[in-house]
Amino acid sequence: MAKRKIIKINEELCNGCGLCIPNCPEGAIQVIDGKARLTSDLFCDGLGACIGHCPQDAISIEEREAQDYNEKRVMENIMKQGWNVIRTHLAHLKEHGQDDYLAQAINFLNPNNIEVPIEEREKQTGKKQTHVSGCPGSRVVDFEKEEGQQKKKSRAAKEESQLRQWPVQIMLIPPHAPYLENGDLLIAADCVPFAYANFHQDFLKGKTLLVGCPKLDDIGIYREKLSQIIKNRNIKSITYAHMEVPCCFGLVSLIKSAIAESGKNIPFHQSIISIKGERRERRE
């Protein structure tokens, strides 16, 4: 093995927030046992896209003996995660001037019948396309234009709101609020009610709502607030409803850690919503 630049994660500083994960499209990082871990030298390109997204400054670049970065292995891993992650990875390579790796990635896409990247499509069609980069959760999507026509929808009867309390933002809810006692908590990423049409009846009915964005808000405040609520209130169950985009998954380990630290046996499950409003359950 030759020496090369590769990320290093300081376990003492890492709090397991998971914010580094959506900023590593190569899939080199996972949260395991409450800490971010480099899962394979093969997947880490050493460019450090994850560093600026760690609130604990737990990630750095070091030069050490490591297996060579393998673009083909990375693409095999990324392909399983869908086109949004592929697109983010290609943009990541382009932004860092990694032309050789970018060419290898494109060569991988073509024989696997996967859509070629934006730049190559422009060369083929002569038409300028909108460039997309950054977090897959920020990708702009117009479903009506993508599907080519507006779907006919039946007009549903007016439904009543199932909201039981105010405020609903995690940042604003007092940890000792009386409505938390004996409650079934619904922690919802704030995009979910917009993506999932029947949110009030299927999710909110009978539950105490906590809303937040694990990408844009202060995850440290989330950790402290949720830990206080779970520790000091009798919570019957916790449901985390979030979008399928990677940045939403960072809150999962935080909730699990808060439950574990409380010493309580609280049922927890996830409801994952696709950006087209489809629902999947994942019970713990």
The total strand number stands at 9
Binned, the helix content reads: 25-40%
Give me the CATH architecture of the largest domain, please: 3-Layer(aba) Sandwich
Work out the strand percent.
15-25%
User: What profile does the largest beta sheet have?
Assistant: 5 strands, mixed
Rg calc: 21 Å
**Level-1 CATH class name of the largest domain:** Alpha Beta
Shape: globular
**Secondary-structure element order, as H and E?**
EEEEHHHHHEHHEHEHEE
**How are the strands ordered across the major sheet?**
6-5-7-8-9
Give the domain tally. Answer: 3
- Class by SSE composition: alpha/beta
Number of alpha- plus pi-helical segments: 9
Integer average pLDDT = 80
CATH fold topology of the largest domain: Rossmann fold
Distance separating the two termini: 40 Å
Uncertain segments: 118-135, 149-156
In brief, what are we looking at here?
This protein has 284 residues and is α/β, with parallel strands linked by helices. The chain has three domains: 1-69, Alpha-Beta Plaits (2-Layer Sandwich), CATH 3.30.70; 72-136, no CATH class; 178-283, Rossmann fold (3-Layer(aba) Sandwich), CATH 3.40.50.
